[in-house]
Amino acid sequence: MRCGEALALRWRDFDAEAGTLPVRRSAGMVRTASEGAGVVEGDTKSGRPRLIDLDDATAAVLRARRRERGALALQLARDDALIFGDLEGRLRNPEQVSRQFTRDVARCGAVPPIRLHDLRHTHATILLTAREPVHVVSQRLGHASAVVTMTVYAHVRPGSQRGAANLFARLVGEAGG
């Protein structure tokens, strides 16, 4: 997910039994000259909702987080509460969350410097390298189409041309023989 999409998730979105999260909204910064800046909820970047399947370990982490949030204050675990809201239950500023992530990574020292958004790219790269179908990765990322995914991640599968050439030659040879 994009950072803003994760920040806009509510507990009612999380289906603990099915291990799914529908991504319907995104938190983002809005700046106006007269009022300054504020965090608001809006549509996802593509404007369309999508359903994300979670692995069992991630679903377990979210169940534990809900218990922990409820132990802090019951209103933080209600169905309409934000999964990643602040301690008051409000939307967090996605720009501040990204900057904090970068600072936390830098403090680790041994980890290469990465941005929070780089985790999204890593997710896509790992799936595509493992030959997950592009349309599946595209759906997980919330891209408008698989063409967007192919354009952004075309570099992930170097050598694909040679594989395609060899496959084509083999198939033509089999058809003619």
Molecular structure report:
The protein is an alpha+beta fold and 177 residues long. It folds into two domains: 1-113, Intergrase catalytic core (hpI Integrase, Chain A); 115-177, no CATH class. The protein has helices spanning 3-7, 56-72, 94-108, 116-129, 134-141, 146-153, 160-176; strands at 20-23, 26-32, 36-42, 50-53. Strand 2 (26-32) and strand 3 (36-42) form a beta hairpin. Helix 5 (134-141) packs across helix 6 (146-153).
What CATH architecture of the largest domain would you give? Orthogonal Bundle
Which strand order do you get reading across the main beta sheet? 1-4
> What percent of residues are in strands?
5-15%
How many strand segments? 4
Helix content: 40-55%
- Number of separate helices: 7
| Helical/strand content category | alpha+beta
What is the CATH topology assignment of the largest domain? Answer: hpI Integrase, Chain A
Quick one: overall form? elongated
Biggest sheet features: 2 strands, antiparallel
Instruction: Average the pLDDT over all residues and give the rounded result.
Output: 89
